[in-house]
Write the structure tokens for this entry.
Amino acid sequence: MATAPAILRRASRPPRQGTFEGHVVVFRHHPRARRYTLRLNRDNELVVTVPRGGSQREAAQFVARSRGWIDGQRLRRVGATGHTSDWSDGTRLLLRGRLVALEVTREHGRPLVRCGDERIFIADAAMNLRRPVEARLLQLARTELPLRTRELARAHDIAIARVTVRNQSSRWGSCSDTGVISLNWRLIQAPDAVRDYLIIHELMHRREMNHSMRFWRLVARACPGWREAEAWLDRHAVELGF
């Protein structure tokens, strides 16, 4: 009988954690999941989704079999803006699907950074630009994403309770049983069509709280270009910090 790799040491309370080749590994049991999945989050943790009926032993073996994928993710992150701690004049990032370069300049003697059409005043022209730029993008997301979500909810006759914009480390969005839609602020960096797909994806969970064939048929009817949107997300996830 195969034995589970020595990946995890059980914590006193869930989620259970351990290590695998220098990474913290977190097992998260999800009753609606149909298969094991693995994600390397922004904190460099391996997050394993364990489906209903799955075991920690099988999940550990799944992680061990995924060594090649893990190594590939490490390489992809080297130099990617979303995984670089220091942003400076000339750093390039995505904003509404367009690649823009940060430009440090002055206005009325005050230093500021231009990010596409955005003007962000900063304290010091030599400072690390990541924090002020991300703060501005978060502000934009918290203004624009809820408005667009409510528009699409009305268009598809879907009732929602409220919309939150958060800084999730391993997911684009979620929908609760009570109708709360949570979206990742990084959707402000995606093209409009991709942003809308992610919102529609979560809205369709108000009709089908799973990822069954029925759910995907609902998504396809509401968003015929969903496959292209998924492909864009796969290509650019690392640039956006995933």
